[in-house]
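Why should sequence recovery work at all? Because a backbone constrains its sequence more than one might expect. Tight turns favour small or flexible residues, buried strands favour hydrophobic ones, and helices have their own preferences. The token representation captures these environments compactly. In the example below, the structure is given first.
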């Protein structure tokens, strides 16, 4: 179980071996490491992180005002109380993650600037071999592990998604994607057009507005917004009563989840009621005469994320006249800005494309199992946690409506229970495997498009694992369902095929 230098036949002569290797040191990887240390204390582990520091998304994104679009009572971990404002800026979130690393002494397990290039499973040796490149030295290094835990996130960090429009080369100013924000971008006194209307645009715009001459949010289609004070009244009351922070965190977490569940389910059963409640709050800022078509999507609430606007800062910007909203399509870029389909020229010095992510599956790493390349889009998901035909590997994919991290805690509980169960069985590997009754399953996409249909998922759905029409080849993406289901999973179900250590030794011998 100790970390050791291991010689592996037909592989590089020197590599570092651990029981569990975690890819990614963002919010998912740090959460996984906590649970692993707590529930599987005998397991050695390492974390490989491409960047020079921890944090993932919160390290990558540096645009003005970067903040969470989920409250930190649920976006934070169950095991670490959150004590700040519910909607937190990126710096505060990084501080929180840094504290989690320090609390659990995880830092010594993290190898920064290690970009994983390939992962190969050997059935004979019952282990994974990973090839990585050290970005600081260019050196190729190797790691082996009994179990691989992919916590690298779901989008490509190197570049965000920017559609190609006619005339982009004609525009005289910079075209910037928020994901790769230039440190030296000067927007003081400039006219800025932000393409997009999601959480990123809603964050950028009010945080740039005071310095810009004017900033325009150009949207092809509107987004549902909701707003309120950036405080939690229940948390404030509990603190006034000197309730311990651990209790405050848990009580407020449960309260927020209950309210969110009611809104989510009501959005399906009574969408017009939810829509009117959302509109009512916006009208309080902008007045009854404001053209609400700019905030009226064609889909029902919660088919895409509701973008949260703390303290109504976006609407305050619109009310002040520093921010305007245009709902139109782009005809082309010109040297002066953007010409819309309706013929309006939006003059700009800077154009920002807040147009979303490029989906990345398993970090774009080349996987193979016993020499056969793995196409994850051809696999079936096992409960949204593992993949058919892929041994000893779990991947972390959080919730898209409930806070992402709510699933980090649930999934980590499952993986740690599985690792301990394998030890009890004396098993070297566990492979989700389609049974005879599964061969004729109806094929469904990763996410039910009627329930949730963000653009990045639509563009990349062919890359994601498939869902079947019955358990265990499903992924509900619903916290309120999974919180009751996952802890009760029978790890001896026949869809999980175990190879015991004695059997693997016989194969090798």
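From this structural description, the recovered sequence reads:
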């Amino acid at each position: 179980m100790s970390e050791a230098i291991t010689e592996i036949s037909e592989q590089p002569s020197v590599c570092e071996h651990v029981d569990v290797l975690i890819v990614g040191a963002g919010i998912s990887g740090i959460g996984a490491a906590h649970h692993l240390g707590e529930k599987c204390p005998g397991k050695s582990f390492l974390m490989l992180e491409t960047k020079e520091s921890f944090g993932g998304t919160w390290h990558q994104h540096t645009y003005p005002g970067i903040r969470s679009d989920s409250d930190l009572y649920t976006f934070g971990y169950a095991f670490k109380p959150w004590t700040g404002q519910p909607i937190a800026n990126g710096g505060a979130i990084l501080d929180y993650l840094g504290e989690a690393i320090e609390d659990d002494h995880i830092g010594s397990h993290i190898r920064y600037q290690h970009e994983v290039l390939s992962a190969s499973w050997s059935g004979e040796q019952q282990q994974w071999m990973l090839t990585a490149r050290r970005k600081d030295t260019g050196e190729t290094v190797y790691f082996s592990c009994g179990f691989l835990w992919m916590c690298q996130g779901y989008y490509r960090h190197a570049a965000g998604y920017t559609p190609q429009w006619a005339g982009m080369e004609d525009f005289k100013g910079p075209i910037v994607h928020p994901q790769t924000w230039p440190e030296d971008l000067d927007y003081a006194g400039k006219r800025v057009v932000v393409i997009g209307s999601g959480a990123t645009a809603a964050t950028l715009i009010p945080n740039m507005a005071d310095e810009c001459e004017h900033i325009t949010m150009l949207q092809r289609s509107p987004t549902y917004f909701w707003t309120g004070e950036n405080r939690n009244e229940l948390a404030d009351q509990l603190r006034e009563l000197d309730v311990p922070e651990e209790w405050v965190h848990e009580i407020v977490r449960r309260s927020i989840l209950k309210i969110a569940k009611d809104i989510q389910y009501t959005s399906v059963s009574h969408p017009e009621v939810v829509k009117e409640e959302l509109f009512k709050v916006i009208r309080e800022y902008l007045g009854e005469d404001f053209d609400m078509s700019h905030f009226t999507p064609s889909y029902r609430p919660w088919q895409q994320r509701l973008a949260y606007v703390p303290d109504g800062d976006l609407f305050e910007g619109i009310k002040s006249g520093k921010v305007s909203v245009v709902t139109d399509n782009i005809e082309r870029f010109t040297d002066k800005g953007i010409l819309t389909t309706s013929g309006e020229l939006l003059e700009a010095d800077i154009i920002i494309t807040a147009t979303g992510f490029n989906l990345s599956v398993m970090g774009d790493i080349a996987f193979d199992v016993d020499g056969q390349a793995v196409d994850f889009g051809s696999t079936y998901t096992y409960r949204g946690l593992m993949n058919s035909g892929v041994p000893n590997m779990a991947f972390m994919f959080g919730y898209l409506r409930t806070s992402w991290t709510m699933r980090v805690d649930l999934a980590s509980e499952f993986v740690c229970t599985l690792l301990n169960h394998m030890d009890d069985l004396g098993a070297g590997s566990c492979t989700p495997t389609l049974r005879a009754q599964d061969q004729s399953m109806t094929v469904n996409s990763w996410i039910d498009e009627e329930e949730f249909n963000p653009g990045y998922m639509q563009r990349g759905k062919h890359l994601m694992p498939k869902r079947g029409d019955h358990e265990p080849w499903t992924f509900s993406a619903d916290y309120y369902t999974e919180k009751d289901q996952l802890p009760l999973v029978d790890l001896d179900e026949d869809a999980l095929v175990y190879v015991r250590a004695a059997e693997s030794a016989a194969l090798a011998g």
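A few observations help interpret the result. The radius of gyration is 24 Å.
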